[in-house]
Design brief:
This protein is of the alpha+beta class. The chain is about 35% helix and about 25% strand. Strands 1-2-3-4-5 form a five-stranded antiparallel beta sheet. A four-stranded antiparallel beta sheet has the order 6-7-8-9. The longest helix is centred in the N-terminal third of the chain and has 27 residues. The two termini are about 30 Å apart.
Length: about 300
């Protein structure tokens, strides 16, 4: 690992710590209203229909294209990894789906032998989610990548296809997690999965409230990180006009350090326009550099600079 990659690793590790701090602060202070009884983290509360979800159960699968819902699922999975890294047996057992535990024979004395757990500081980024929309019991089929940073050893492990099934009851805000096989076609898996209405007894989540600006910053930082984690994936995120500036992917790879330095981690302004089903964001950073992000749906984007 060269000095530049070590520098990037330090930055990534700092981002992971910041995410963890934000998650803790959010858990302490966020609520759904002024009335303390509205707080979904209060174990004495069983909120009734907090998301105005009708008592219906749907089996129709579609892509998830809602920022708040998408990043709520992301937070649920990253909370799971926090418990895994902490080796908290009781909490991990509660998070795992009952049917999954029975199928895999998971108990307190073997859970970390069955589920992958040898992480130092794991951070999960979902890239696509399919779900049964407008359903009180919602199945989220999630595919993304995982990065495990060892700050002491200055190393980073990258898993490019890590998949989950997160089941949520939107009335009670209970949820469960099932680990799926790596390297599967998550859309095909979702469409072939037999959905059943089931009761969930454990865990509680808080709906994430995000903004377009926060999502755009997330996109830029994902692209920056993938320059080193998965350069081919980053290359495929280039919009055609930018991709044509490089002779081929090897040429793009050869410029990864200067691209990393050029892409901002924050922005000072943006504007948006619609082009059919695509959202186009025109972004300005603190150096007055301009970038364009073409978004087809959440996490399905290309970048021009």
């Amino acid at each position: 690992m060269n000095q530049y990659q070590k520098k990037v690793l330090f930055i990534v590790f700092g981002i992971l710590i910041l995410i963890a701090i934000i998650a803790v602060v959010w858990s302490l202070f966020v609520s759904t209203g002024d009335d303390p009884s509205d707080n979904p983290n209060d174990p004495t509360n069983e909120p009734t229909n907090p998301g105005n979800t009708e008592d219906v159960f749907s089996t129709d699968i579609s892509p998830l294209n809602d920022y708040n819902e998408f990043f709520t699922v992301s937070r649920i999975i990253n909370d799971y990894y926090l418990e895994i890294v902490s080796q908290n047996t009781a909490n991990v057992l509660d998070l795992l789906d009952l049917d999954y535990k029975e199928e895999m024979g998971i108990q307190a004395n073997n859970v970390f032998d069955i589920v992958r757990s040898n992480y130092t500081s794991a951070s999960y980024t979902p890239m696509e989610i399919y779900y049964n929309a407008q359903s009180v019991v919602t199945y989220y089929f999630v595919s993304g990548y995982l990065e495990d940073v060892d700050f002491i050893e200055n190393t980073s492990l990258y898993y490019d296809s890590v998949n989950f099934l997160v089941i949520v009851d939107k009335n009670t805000r209970h949820y469960s997690i099932t680990l799926l096989e790596d390297d599967i076609d998550i859309e095909e898996y979702a469409r072939n999965y037999e959905l059943v209405e089931k009761e969930l007894e454990y865990n509680s989540y808080t709906q994430v409230e995000t903004t377009e600006e926060m999502v755009l910053v997330t996109y830029l930082n994902i692209f920056r990180d993938l320059l080193f984690l998965d350069n081919e994936r980053a290359y495929n995120m280039l919009y055609l006009d930018t991709r044509e500036r490089y002779a081929d992917r090897q040429d793009f790879y050869n410029h990864q350090e200067e691209i990393y330095d050029y892409i901002p981690s924050t922005i000072i302004g943006y504007s948006r326009k619609e082009n059919n089903d695509q959202a186009i964001y025109y972004i300005t950073d603190s150096e007055q550099n301009r970038f364009v992000i073409y978004e087809n749906k959440v996490m399905d984007f290309q970048i021009s600079y």
